[in-house]
Amino acid sequence: MTGATAARCCVAVLMIPLAGCKLIDQTTFAPSPSKNPALLPGTPATTEIGKIDPRTPLLSIDAGTPVPAYGGILRYAVARAVARDPNVRFDVLVAVPDVGGAAAQANAVANVQPQASALMREIGSDGVAASRIDLRAGVDPHIRQSQIRVYVR
């Protein structure tokens, strides 16, 4: 055996134990990362921006609309929903246009989220427990301006 052939044999013999190994990557340590990363205290929990809800909303409000413009309608709609089912749950969805990519959409959600949180507080002030109000975000390719939509389930 020549020196080169012997070296190849040694390398081949040393590689056999590594055949069952796999490379270490992110999936080794976090095979299923958390769906909801930890938020700062006091911030509402939102899921990642997803697809738009196919249900018909109970109420749809353009972003930037002041509370007095929709407060009465919201109170009436919430009261009617609670009258039908005292355990009704409300989904508040921040719907943003499908423009500018993921970073622009996340920025649009961040801009509307304070108004959505205020709307959630309005629903809560009508006697609905906070545990029955969920906040989410979605991208709607059919709108040009961000909206806040309220759904019942």
What would you say about this model in short?
With 153 residues, this protein is an alpha/beta fold. The chain is 39% helix and 18% strand.
Shape summary = globular
**What is the H/E order?**
HHEEHEHEE
CATH topology of the domain at 50-152: 60s Ribosomal Protein L30, Chain: A
Question: How helical, in percent, are the residues?
Answer: 25-40%
Number of strands: 5
Rg calc: 26 Å
Q: What are the main properties of this structure?
A:
60s Ribosomal Protein L30, Chain: A, 153 residues, five-stranded mixed beta sheet, 39% helix, alpha/beta
Description of the molecule:
It is a single chain. The protein is built from four helices and five strands; from the N terminus they run ααββαβαββ. It has a domain at 50-152: 60s Ribosomal Protein L30, Chain: A (2-Layer Sandwich), CATH 3.30.1330. The model is unreliable at 10-47 (pLDDT under 50). The protein is α/β, with parallel strands linked by helices and 153 residues long. It has helices at 3-15, 26-29, 67-84, 101-125; strands spanning 50-51, 59-62, 90-97, 133-140, 147-152. The radius of gyration is 26 Å and the shape is globular. The chain has a five-stranded mixed β-sheet with strand order 1-4-3-5-2, with helices on one face. α4 (101-125) links the parallel β3 (90-97) and β4 (133-140). α3 packs across α4. Helices cover 39% and strands 18% of the residues.
Helices, strands, pairings?
Layout (H helix, E strand, L loop, with lengths): L2 H13 L10 H4 L20 E2 L7 E4 L4 H18 L5 E8 L3 H25 L7 E8 L6 E6 L1
Parallel strand pairs: 1-4, 3-4
Antiparallel strand pairs: 2-5, 3-5
Helix pairs in contact: 3-4
